[in-house]
Records
---
Amino acid sequence: QELVKERETQNLLIKDMKTTINKNHDKLKKMMKQLEEEQVRRESNEKQIQSLETLSRNQEEAFNKQSKQLEDVRGELSQLKSIRDAIFNLSKSGVSAPGGY
């Protein structure tokens, strides 16, 4: 009879251990799934960051190109103003056009 009680006790312990192992296994599976989801999120975020960095570089290049164009236009405008001022000064001084017209 003692052997039967001991056997029952062992069976109960084994059952408890199996239950605990199953619970831990389920927890581990849940944690693994969460880790995989987190990894997917991080990879997605990294791709977005790379896209934003590329976009920023492209915008910076476009800005630099427009700045250069603006600089060129300002230089041309300055030259045109100088020509306009020279023409105005010539007309003010009464210098006639070549050929006596």
---
Amino acid sequence: TETRTRIFFCLPSIVTHQSSQTKELCEKQRTSWLAAISRQDIKPANFHYTRVCSDYFTSGKPAGLYDTTNPDLAPTLKLGHQLMKPGDSCRHTTAVARDAKKRKIEEDTIQSATTMASDIESSDRRFS
């Protein structure tokens, strides 16, 4: 059997000193965590002390704030209730592949533009 070290993660905080989009994402992520945990004894005064074990995430850790398609955006495993379904990792994998493809297209475009500019510059030198 595989033994994995347990890590405890704080409930996501609400970031207010950045953009309104960041604040919205923070609020959405915290709400998702609280819905997943589904414990009546967690009150706003206790949010700072609330911890969630790595066993509750498919990858062993929560997703980043802007990684909205990641199934680990909120805890989904071993919750003791059936309110939440495990995240759809297929959707996340597709989104990651799509982003990688976009980046490659952008890099190829930049590379071809650089090559074209270099070709034009060298042809200008030949004719001068």
---
Amino acid sequence: IQSNLSESKMAAVQQQQQDMVKKLQTEREQLQVLTKEFQKFVSTRQQFDAQLNENELVLSEFKRLKKNSEVFKLVGPVLVKQEVPEAISTVKKRITFIKGELERCDKNISDSEEKQTTCRESLVKIQQEYQEKVQATQQPAK
């Protein structure tokens, strides 16, 4: 009877260990997904940052124009003459839009960092629980 009892205990312990290994794998996969998502957010932010710098440079160039200067806009393969105030307005609107997108990216990055931290903490907790279970099964019964 005791051997049946110890066999069922062993089977239960093995099942618990298998379940914990599955939880570990799931958490690791989730962390990988979150890390890729984070990298995508950072890449997007870098692109918007570059666009912002470019548009701010254009705006500063507009301020250096003389009164009688002409501005042209590239539309497909053709350069089209554009009024200076209209061009300045367009660039300012673009800068405003890009700044809004940068704020959205910053929020996404912050949220993603929080999710990664939570996932890492969960992963460490599961690993500790797993190690404790393994150690408990390796210790001789008293």
